[in-house]
Amino acid sequence: YRPLDSSRKEIRILYLEPEPLHSPKDVVVHVFNASLLEPNIPRLYGCLSYYWGDPKITKAIQVMYTEKSESENNGLLTTQTEFRVNANLEAALRVFRSKLNRPVMWADALCINQSDIDERSPQVGLMAEIYAQAVQTIVRLGDADGTTKTVFD
Fold first, then answer.
1. Among candidates 132, 150, 129, 133, which has minimal Cα distance to 141?
2. Closest to 48 measured CA to CA, from 147, 130, 151, 149
3. Chain centroid to CA 116: how far?
4. What is the mean pLDDT of residues 83-89?
5. Model confidence over 42-84: pLDDT tens digits?
6. Burial of 59 (0-12, 13-18, 19+ CB in 10 A)
7. Mean predicted confidence (pLDDT) in 126-152
8. H helices of 67-107, where?
9. What is residue 121's three-state secondary structure?
10. Are 69 and 77 within 8 A, CB to CB?
11. Which of 21, 47, 77, 132 is most buried per CB count within 10 Å?
12. What is the pLDDT of residue 126?
C-alpha cells in the first residue's frame, strides 16, 4: 500500500481492467489515490458492497500501482504484485469487470489497508462520505443459493 494523505481526505480507487476477449485471466486492478476534496470525484467511482464470506478462503488478483519516477524515461513507474483477497471480492470483481460501463470503484477490503490500524481507523470514519460521493453503489450478495434467493422473495 502507498500512504494516504489524511489532510486531503485521500482514498484509494480501483480501475478494473476489462475481461480479456480470448481467455479468462486473473483479475487486474490499477490502484490510485484520490482526494474526496476534489470537485470531480463524485463522477469518478462507484462503491462495491458485498458479502465478505469466509476470510480463510482467498484468491489472487493482480494489483498495479503507477507512481511518478525520475529514473524512468516517461516519468512513471508501474509495479505489479499479486494480492490475496477473499474469494467473494475476487468473484465480484470478476463479474463486474465485464458488466460495468464505469469500471472504477471503491471496495473497502482492498482500498483500505486492513492491517494498518493508523490508516484503517480514519478511513472507516470516511466511509459514509465515500459512499455518499460515489456515483453508484453496487451490491453483490454472492452466487445464487437458497440464502440469497430469499432476499428477493
1. 150
2. 130
3. 17
4. 93
5. 568 999 998 888 889 999 999 988 776 666 666 677 888 999 9
6. middle
7. 79
8. 87-99
9. helix
10. yes
11. 47
12. 97
Cell numbers 437458497 correspond to 146
Query: What pTM value is reported for the model?
Result: 0.82
Grid coordinates standing for 146?
437458497
Cross-sheet strand order for the sheet of 46-50: 76-86, 58-68, 28-35, 10-16, 104-106, 46-50, 136-140
Identity at 91, one-letter amino acid code: A
According to DSSP, the residues that pair with 10 across neighbouring strands are 35
| C-alpha grid cell, residue 16 | 478494473
| Distance between CA atoms of residues 96 and 140, nearest Å | 10
Instruction: Return the C-alpha cell found at 125.
Output: 470514519
C-alpha distance from residue 132 to each of 17, 42, 135 (Å): 25, 8, 8
Residue 130 has pLDDT above 90, yes or no: yes
Q: Is the pLDDT of residue 152 over 60?
A: no
Q: Which among 100, 59, 61 has a CA at the least distance from the CA of 80?
A: 61
In the numeric block, which cell numbers belong to residue 110?
482492498
